[in-house]
Amino acid sequence: MKLANSRTESFHGYFVTCFVSIVVVLIMFSYYFSSSLVSFSSSKFEFLSSSPSPVATSELQRTVQISDRQIQAVHLTASSSDGAITTVNRIRNSTTTVIKKLSTVVLRKKHDLIMIKHGLARARASIHKAASTRNISVISSIINNINDDDYVPNRAIYRNPGAFYQSYLEMERRFKVYVYREGELPITHYGPCKDIYTIEGRFISEMEHGAKRFRTSDPHRAHVYFLPFSVVWMVKYLYKPLTYDLTPLKQFVADYVRVVSTKYPFWNRTSGADHFMLACHDWGPHASKGNPLLYNTSIRVLCNANTSEGFNPQKDVSLPEIHLYGGNISPKLLSLPPSHPPRPYLAFFAGGLHGPIRPILFQHWKDREDDMIKVYEYLPKDLDYYSFMLKSKFCLCPSGYEVASPRIVEAIYAECVPVILSNHYVLPFSDVLRWEAFSIQVDVSEIPQLKEVLMAVTEEKYRILKENLRFVRRHFVLNQPAKRFDVFHMILHSIWLRRLNMREMDR
Question: What residues does the Exostosin GT47 domain cover (predicted)?
């Protein structure tokens, strides 16, 4: 900086010297041609006549005034070196101000990072304290003294109810999400809000237009960064039907990550570890391969949570698949009767023949002359799907081509105990929920003995399973706007847990 200032001062000095020399020459030139009219000394002006004909007084005054201005210009120029120094000082002060502002910005960013790290550390400590309480009476006291009308504690459905509640409160208190603004509709900032991929569009919509508690406009204060593209709309607008060429999807994801990683510093400072995408389409995992770091490092929130295809429950989040035909829960499932009407059927399933598991189910149970287990490939038009669910004790939920099934959430709504028939499937919210408390998992090899397996469930155990379904239902309901502890907040909580478990980097 001193070298720059020295060069600046030298430049201004050279400029002033040249300018003064030019002005002096001009004045001498003017003086040579006007010497007959004007002569000046250091003390006064003297007007001398050089021609026999008189010169008009007005002309003399005009000439003298011009020369006077020229002389003043010389004096001003001669003193302009002080102005040059003043200019240099002004530049120096401006540079200092810019440096101070930049330093302030850098310090503020550093301060924000420190505050984020300290906040996460405090959250971990409080959750760990709640989770490490082993005294049953203390745990019961904590749960029973919770003054929160929105929270219904049930030790059976949670792995650790005290720890979950404390973690949820810490999320509400601290968690901030930055949503990238890049991209245009419809592929970004929008998604389907009904039919089988409802959850994808509804989450994007809530994140974009609601969730004021969690969304931040200052990316430096964010814990995670949301890449708001919709894989469903990529398939609709970029995919060429029947080609099975997923290159356009991968290319879009690659381009999007390249844009945000070039424009912002946040992706590069953590290699994308604190960024997340969300997709319910079966091809969500394939689209994420557009960027290796997104696939291997970032948080991927996926309905297709298949560990045999790269889903990593340590960093990825299992997204419940929710099928809302018109965008809303069926009135038949919206409010169930408080009493316990009889359920004459032991188990029920209706769905298409696809994937490796359903053919086995159909082989052993389709069109069987059995009044207790009803398995249909296509439900007859005179029969109602939800009515069958409400009349069945167990609802069979086999995987199709991919592991997730919307029947799991539908069964929860109907308080029909889900029977999970799947391989390599990470169930949603299994970090905090005990799925064995409200569902049954049956190995695919046991499908031929399905009736015996379900009949072995005692009435007492079935009653407990059904009661727990009523408790857990709230965690799978899509509300608009979102409500505390509903599925939107449970998804956020799963992302929050991954962020808590992420190793802190020097960013």
Answer: 172-456
